[in-house]
Amino acid sequence: MPQRLPDDPRLRRLVSAQFSRRNVLMGAGGLTLAGLLAACGTGGSTTNSAAGGTPTPAADLSGSEKVVNWANWTLYLDYDDKAQTYPSLDAFSQASGIQANYSEDIDGNDTYFGKVQGQLAAGQDIGQDIITLTDWMAARLIRLGYTQELDLANIPNSANLLENLKNVDFDPGRKNSLTWQSGFAGIAWNKEAVPGGLRTVADLWQPELKGRVEVLDEMRDTMGLLMLDNGVDISGEWGSAEYDAALEVLSKQIADGQIRQVKGNSYKEDLISGDALAVIAWSGDITQLNFEEGDKWEFALPDAGGTLWSDNLMVPIGSPHKANAEALMDYYYDPKNAATVAAYVNYICPVEGAREAMEAIDPELVENPLIFPTEDFLANAHVLRTLSAEEETDFSDRFQKAIGN
Amino acid sequence: MSLLARNRGNGPAADASGKAARPGGKDPRSAGEIGAERRRSRMGYWLILPGFAFMLLFFVLPVFSLLATSLYAKPPGADVGQFVPALQFGNYADVLGAYWQELLRSFAFALVATVAALLIGYPMAYLVAVRLRGRKLLQGILLVLIIAPFFTSFILRTQAWKQILADEGPVVAVLRAVALLPEDGRLTATAFAVVCGLTYNFLPFMTLPIYANLERLDTRLIEAGTDLYASPFQTFRTVTLPLSMPGVMAGTLLTFIPASGDYINAALLGNNQDTTMIGQVIDSRFFRVVDYPGASALSFVLMLAILALVILYVRRFGTKELL
């Protein structure tokens, strides 16, 4: 529809000049170019953070919006198959009046980071108020300033966090993160095919297992186990030389055909099909496989030690529901609720007192070292030290090249 | 053929306004009718607008964004995932130097898979379109069978292949029994399995265009060939095959292009030594190493290489209908 132009000729000239078609087109072109140059990069890039600024936390609307959105991994919260509900979560919603929306959105630390990092760098709301990521990725997010500082006064139960998890090197004093569950990476084998069992990572390289061994594509677990096998203290001061030595072992075993494939979660299918007889694996997976497929496999920490990892609850920088998120964290740090979850997920429970609470839920699980590990068992599990930004890029680059990518 | 189609397309419209055929008169259509026709032709432009906007938003803009990202630089001291806009053309040299083998391998695998799919798909299409012509029910059933794999997810089907080709599975057992495979031989985690997976997964893309083409083949031409004492092979080579070239072109392109960029087959059925395809490398650079410029540069190189190969191919073997 044509716009009526003003009668005053000078005004008329101004207005029509403003709206001439060419100008509008040029404006649009300029915008596009500017957009390109200003970083419309895939995966969103980061002029913002590279320029030195970090995103600022969103205003907390918890008072008026009684909602909390939680992104987690699959099979990581007690689930009622029949009713198709998460009983403990529903109980939280009922008691607190906060509606909890739970989604199994996270299927890998790297892929999830790739998905949300552009928005986080810009300080935007990613639609989640709690995200659950593994230590090293939690370290990266906290370092980049992509998480909000927790108000521990709102989470009195956080005092129940196990003593050895209270001070982690990536988040001293647990200001930005709380442990959700922990687990081990170790070795696992088919009991029928390997009746003698395995004791060390080097046992995977015996000729009888040639072409039937698989290792994890999670760099920190596979490389951690290989370095431990070389006698390296992975929590302490180690560097490029130690990493190289372990990487050489990996490359050699791949080149010799000893290692069939380097895999993520899908090594489970290869254990079932029989293509893989011995693997570097996660403890919870083997528990679950034995439960589903008959008791066929055994998991152990190698003599030289296995790795201990944790997944951590964090509030992303753009979340407008931090207080609600804190209420939910507090709820799951209640020993009784923690034990309810542990009885379902079969991972290490990080909450003091949950072991006692478990007596009432499932007394058999109280003695399970994969849920409530003893001091001895824990002494053999090590946390890989946090890598610096340069190391992270450099090590994963070299690891990816070694596994053929 | 395109001329024919145009006539066919216009035929009914001309019939509908019918009166145009009346002899001796001027254009008998009223001004209103002519106006309506003009509006219809202008309507065509409006109808392509959504498609145009869609391509602009989801293809053109991302391509520019990809190009921009591929030239980003990492400033000293930057954290993981932090880059600044720049014009760092060295990114291309870096990734090409590091990954030319994977790039070549992807095209080699895609080529072998395309040829294999053609050898399998052409007879299938010929059977359904020519041999069974007129037997509607049988044709329908076979066509559904050709399309049936699409009813389940790509990843699930490839996963199923892993079980079928597994060391303890039926195929390996038979091959070992007849000594086609050594006692400790295997099929999964080999280049052979990757190419088989690619062939299988893209087979319908090869079969359907050839079917659509052969379905219109005039069988009287084959009879004529036989009447002229041509052997069946000669008839096929000089009559059927040249006539079906548009279908073959479409089928080979639809197979080759996605197969070269595929990474699911190589990831599930391949190993970590000699089966890595470029799609896997891009995935690993983007998500694992968080090297956005490198991943973008590789994607761009892949796109350009495919485009160049397709142009060469169409120039060399192409038929007019495709150009």
Explain what this protein looks like in three dimensions.
The complex is a heterodimer of chains A (405) and B (323). Chain A is of the alpha/beta class and 405 residues long. Chain A is 39% helix and 14% strand. In chain A, strands 1, 2, 3, 4, 5, 6, 7, 8, 9 and 10 form a ten-stranded mixed beta sheet that branches. The longest helix of chain A is centred in the N-terminal third of the chain and has 17 residues, at 21-37. The N and C termini of chain A lie far apart (57 Å). Residues 1-5 and 13-52 of chain A have low confidence and may be disordered. Chain B starts with a helix and ends in a 6-residue tail after the last helix. Chain B has a single domain (92-322), classed as MetI-like (MetI-like fold, Orthogonal Bundle), CATH 1.10.3720.10. The chains are: A alpha/beta (405), B mainly alpha (323). The interface between A and B is large, with 51 and 50 residues. Chain A: It comes from Arthrobacter mangrovi.
Give the integer mean of the pLDDT values of chain B. Answer: 88
CATH architecture of chain B: Orthogonal Bundle
Q: First CA to last CA of chain B: what distance?
A: 13 Å
Kindly report the CATH topology of the domain at 183-308 and 386-402 in chain A.
Answer: D-Maltodextrin-Binding Protein, domain 2
The CATH level-2 architecture of the domain at 183-308 and 386-402 in chain A is identified as 3-Layer(aba) Sandwich
Shape of chain B: flat
Main location (chain A): periplasm
Subcellular location (chain A): Periplasm
Protein name (chain A): ABC transporter substrate-binding protein
InterPro entries (chain A): SBP, Sperm_putr-bd, TAT_signal
